[in-house]
Design brief:
The chain has 13 helices and ten strands. The chain has 332 residues and is of the alpha/beta class. It has two domains: 216 residues, Spore Coat Polysaccharide Biosynthesis Protein SpsA, Chain A (Alpha-Beta Complex), CATH 3.90.550; 107 residues. Strands 1, 2, 3, 4, 5, 6, 7, 8, 9 and 10 form a ten-stranded mixed β-sheet that branches. α10 packs across α13.
Length: 332
């Protein structure tokens, strides 16, 4: 018997994209699907488009709308999907994206075959308005299935697979039993939630075909990061830092420190690309400097790469020197 799959979609400022997103869900070759659309008090016409789509296509039986009392952000929206889901699996889709017609069918086949807690496919990036195709969020992992927490966490930390929360078929009991909900108040927290899932995962499977269409446009979060996102990154770094402090397993502790070090380096660069604001950048740099870093023994050890040591050292400099050095590297 084909297990029920819950597809969770946020409704917020997506009137230009939501109908195509819903058409891609309705057109799935896999039919045992329920769709939960969470209205995050969208101020535009998105909600009306969704209501009309459900009515026109007579989808009321397996499609439901959840209205939030106030605008609460994507974390609360996704948590509501987890809470309301009746499926064996949950699959998050952003409202400005689409999925390929056989995406759910193929992902379920792989998940059922492997008994993986998470199953993910490949992503097709599409730039708007040019419709240029790009391969984004590639899967670098060589194996089709990773088993055992240490191996999975190592691949996650080393960038073996994407940290996005969407395009992952996730066993709902895995999320609920480990209390793996999204942190309220954080905007872009896929890196945190996927990291937290990685701390508990025992099996993850990879489908070597395109399942998700990710549209790159001027409304995308990637093009509209503000100070609130930088503050969120600081909060995420602090949470990862706390996991490092509490971790007792030395192998996992090393990997968490590597993840934290790379997270600081990557988000400092994204911070500058988004705003090119010296004050914002320095605030983040000073905050990151207070978090855990490599020890003297770590620097002397071959267990840590030269690149990681450079990233860590970069965050230890006095802020003025760190800023000058960063600008020299960024601008050259």
């Amino acid at each position: 018997m084909n297990p029920l799959v819950t597809i969770s979609i946020p409704i917020f400022k997506c009137e230009d994209f939501i109908e195509n997103c819903l058409l891609s869900i309705k057109g799935q070759s896999y039919k045992n699907i329920e769709v939960i659309l969470v209205n995050d008090k969208t101020p535009d016409n998105s909600f009306a488009i969704v209501e009309k789509f459900i009515d026109d296509h007579r989808l009321s039986q397996n499609w439901s709308i959840v209205d939030l009392e106030e605008n609460s952000g994507l974390s609360v929206v996704r948590n509501r999907g987890i809470e309301k889901a009746k499926g064996k699996y949950i699959f998050f889709v952003d409202s400005d994206d689409e999925i390929f017609p056989d995406a759910i069918e193929k992902l379920v086949e792989k998940a059922e075959e492997t008994k993986a807690e998470i199953t993910m496919g490949e992503v097709q990036g599409i730039t708007l308005p040019s419709l240029e195709n790009k391969d984004v969020f590639p899967i670098h992992v060589k194996k089709d299935v990773l088993a055992g927490n240490h191996e999975i966490l190592r691949e996650l930390v080393n960038g073996g697979f994407a940290i996005s929360s969407w395009n992952k078929l996730i066993l709902i009991d895995f999320l609920r039993s480990n209390n793996l909900y999204f942190t309220k108040g954080l905007y872009a927290q896929d890196s945190l939630h996927t990291f937290e899932m990685g701390l508990y995962l025992e099996k993850i499977a990879f489908l070597r075909q395109k399942t998700y269409k990710y549209f790159l446009h001027q409304g995308s979060v990637i093009h509209n990061r503000r100070k609130v996102h930088f503050d969120n990154w600081m909060t995420i770094a602090q949470i990862i830092n706390n996991y490092f402090i509490k971790e007792k397993d030395l192998f996992r502790k090393k990997l968490i420190l590597e993840y934290l070090t790379r997270f600081k380096a990557v988000t400092l660069e994204m911070n500058w690309k988004a705003q090119k604001n010296e004050q914002f950048w320095k605030e983040s740099y000073l905050g990151y400097a207070k978090l855990k870093g490599l020890s003297v023994l770590n620097y002397l050890s071959s267990d840590y790469s030269f690149r990681l040591k450079k990233q860590d050292l970069f965050c230890r400099l006095p802020v003025s020197l760190g800023y000058k050095f960063f600008r020299w590297r960024f601008d050259r």
